[in-house]
Amino acid sequence: MENKIHLFNTLTRKVEQFVPNTDGKVSMYTCGPTVYHFAHIGNLRSYIMEDVLEKTLRYVGYDVKRVMNITDVGHLTSDADTGEDKMLKGAKREHKTVMEIARYYTDAFFADCAKLNIRKPDIVEPATNCIPEFINMVETLIEKGYAYVAGGNVYFDTSKLKDYYVFSSQNEKELMVGVRDDVSEDTNKKNKADFVLWFTKSKFDNQELKWDSPWGVGYPGWHIECSCISMKHLGEYMDIHCGGVDNIFPHHTNEIAQSESYLGHKWCNYWFHVHHLNDKSGKMSKSNGEFLTVSLLEQKGYDPLVYRLFCLQSHYRKPLEFSYEVMDNMKSAYDKLVRKIGELKPDGEIDKDGFDRYRAEFEAALANDINTSSAITVIYDVLRSSLNDATKLKLIKSFDEVLSLNLTRMQGAAESKGEIDSELEAFVEAKIEERKAAKKEKDFAKADAIRDELLAKGVRIRDTREGVVWELV
Ligand code: AMP
Ligand code: ZN
């Protein structure tokens, strides 16, 4: 098929034509959340923009297979392998087990994603599911001479590579800017940039999750999980790997080092990185200042899709500053837009030429390195155009396959308001009760399945302080 999409590739530092390994198919991997706390809306900016990338690829005709990991072990408070395991920190904070924390925050993450209309990837795999795969990769890296055991841990030997800093000619100090928290020296390392593949000697004797390995009882490093999980589901050649810019170094740099050493060939062709959302103080944080979550936005009266619009109005490669003033402007722009779309009358014949022309314009905006704000401008162009209502509506519904802003939510609102028949109402109420019971039993999978079942029927439910509320979408 025609390769229309152009993307900025962090690996080459250029906007390039996107050509997948297999014609018409795309394999895509996303670094998933570390589930020790709620996601902040910065994290979710990355997932929103990656969602738009995935949906754009589908929109232009690619068959996309997308995989995401869930980091439930091994991610230390510093990305450079020092500090405490974040999961353990979360468990201590809440006096729960690591697995309880992981399950709770994984569910919370996908609930936030659902509110933001972020599609769940085709495959979601927690790191703790894949310990044998990690051990196998580490064994191979040792056999091939790329890894060594020191002080009980296994390290990747970066001096074995011709070019370790693949993303940049910058030195490590500059790259470390994105790395979080304290960075202390590990004297076991042969080279400063070496990183841990498998820990057995942890500073923390109370590390809850440990597994047997050829190097002793221990747990995997953070980077190895993404290499293994992506290969497990997408094979040895991958098209696109995504994450926030802080993942470029050391996480993605290390993923490439170990994956390509293991495979003996190039692994992933395109690297897509979303720039950070910052608050006024600079860095978005889960521990300092106001912890900005989707629930907080809802409490303050913002529909989560207003935040999605906020993200789509700026380019994913630019830093974005969060403010309530801009959110207020977005809220009124969003309300006005859906009201205007709500007034369109669905009858009439589709103007095929007009439809194709604006669809091509919309595609061209997205094909130009996912220019979402230009894509949104096309909605306004359509509304202003001389096309008939039916064609306008069909175009906007089509655009919403990518933008996922529920743009037609007010369609026919006036007529249908009184028509939510009592049968539907009874059905929804019964399902809400069933979900409540499932949650009480801690059967979160069932609770999620009920929420998804309702959504598939066009009913969105939301947990609020006042209880569960529902609406037609
Ligand atoms: P984590 O849960 O820390 O592993 O991060 C989940 C995702 O959010 C990763 O892709 C990070 O790169 C991304 N991320 C972290 N902070 C921000 C931020 N302030 N803005 C946008 N993305 C972020
Ligand atoms: Zn990753």
Written account of the structure:
By secondary structure, this protein is an alpha/beta fold. Among the domains are: 6-274, 3-Layer(aba) Sandwich (Rossmann fold), CATH 3.40.50.620; 412-473, no CATH class. The chain has helices at 41-59, 86-94, 98-115, 131-143, 172-175, 222-234, 248-263, 294-299, 304-312, 324-342, 352-367, 372-384, 389-403, 413-416, 422-440, 444-456; strands spanning 6-9, 14-17, 25-30, 63-70, 123-126, 147-150, 153-156, 195-199, 219-220, 238-244, 268-274, 277-278, 320-321, 459-464, 467-472. The strands form five sheets. It has a five-stranded parallel sheet with strand order 5-4-3-10-11, with helices on both faces. The protein has a four-stranded antiparallel sheet with strand order 6-7-8-9. A hairpin with a 2-residue loop joins strand 14 (459-464) and strand 15. Helix 11 runs parallel beside helix 13. Mean pLDDT is 90; it is low at 177-182. The structure holds adenosine monophosphate and zinc ion. Adenosine monophosphate binds at residues 31, 33-34, 42-43, 45-46, 71, 243-244, 246-247, 274, 276-277, 284.
